[in-house]
From TrEMBL:
Protein name per the record: Lantibiotic immunity ABC transporter MutG family permease subunit
Alphabetized UniProt keyword annotations: Membrane, Transmembrane, Transmembrane helix
Residues annotated as transmembrane: 21-41, 53-73, 100-122, 128-151, 163-184, 218-237
Keyword Ribonucleoprotein assigned: no
One Pfam family matching this protein: ABC2_membrane_4
InterPro entries (UniProt xref): ABC-transptr_permeasesu (IPR022294)
Organism: Clostridium frigoriphilum
The UniProt record lists the keyword GTP-binding: no
């Protein structure tokens, strides 16, 4: 645990003089302020506006995850063909866990800023609702971070970014009728669908129990997939020796 904390601290220091930290601060701030400015200009102040913002946030994150994961992993490649990750710790999995945890923490920070600032400026619903939506966005993205760390290590930044673009398109598609029956099994749908179902539950109290069961089903499938993917990724990284082009 101490080695992992030290590794996370070291990885954070590597990012201090890069644009990564600023991206995680400025993009969510800009997004929140743009939506707030637009909504206050149109003077609607409706629950639908909040739903649109949170769903837009959920759709944008797969792309951001793909891009940021690719950039962070590329730093390790440029610093010495991943030798720092592969050779600097007694436990080979520690650097891998450090990178994944750091990216998840940065994503959590961004979502907290994006949702928190919007909630302060658009206080139509209770803050507890915004908190639940933020947690849904964070948990729904953890699988994607693990996936993109693997893609970035194995195939590079281009593949991770390309998958991120596709993921955002899939996320938007899952809001249509196509996603009603398959969203449980599509990782890019989890965040946006949890937010969508929260608003359906809010707008349709009579179907609250049915919607809650649907969300529980999605959550169980998501947690099962997350646990399996996490364990498999650890075993994979233990045997990974760098990209084939470097072997």
């Amino acid at each position: 645990m101490i080695a992992l904390l030290r590794c996370i601290k070291s990885d954070f220091y590597k990012l201090r003089h890069t644009s990564i930290l600023w991206i995680h601060l400025l993009i969510p701030l800009a997004g929140a302020f743009i939506f707030l400015l637009y909504y206050h200009t149109t003077a609607k102040n409706s629950i639908t506006d909040i739903e649109t913002y949170l769903e837009a946030l959920a759709i944008a994150f797969p792309l951001l995850i793909g891009l940021i994961s690719g950039i962070v992993i590329e730093q390790e490649e440029l610093a010495g063909n991943f030798q720092v990750m592969l050779c600097t710790s007694k436990s080979k999995c520690t650097p891998y866990l450090s990178k994944s945890i750091l990216l998840i923490l940065l994503g959590t920070f961004s979502i907290t800023i994006a949702v928190g600032v919007f909630a302060l400026g658009f206080h139509v619903l209770p803050y507890l609702f915004y908190l639940k939506a933020g947690v849904a966005l964070i948990i729904g993205n953890i699988f994607l971070y693990i996936l993109h760390v693997f893609i970035s290590l194995q195939f590079g930044k281009g593949a991770s970014t390309g998958l991120g673009v596709s993921g955002s398109l899939i996320s938007a598609l899952m809001l249509t009728g196509l996603g009603d029956y398959i969203w449980y099994f599509v990782p890019w749908a989890w965040s946006v669908r949890f937010c969508h179902r929260m608003f359906e539950k809010l707008n349709n109290p009579a179907f609250s129990a049915e919607i809650a069961l649907d969300m529980q089903k999605g959550a169980l499938i998501m947690l099962f997939a997350l646990c399996i993917t996490f364990v498999v990724s650890l075993f994979w990284f233990k045997k990974w020796e760098g990209r084939k082009s470097y072997e």
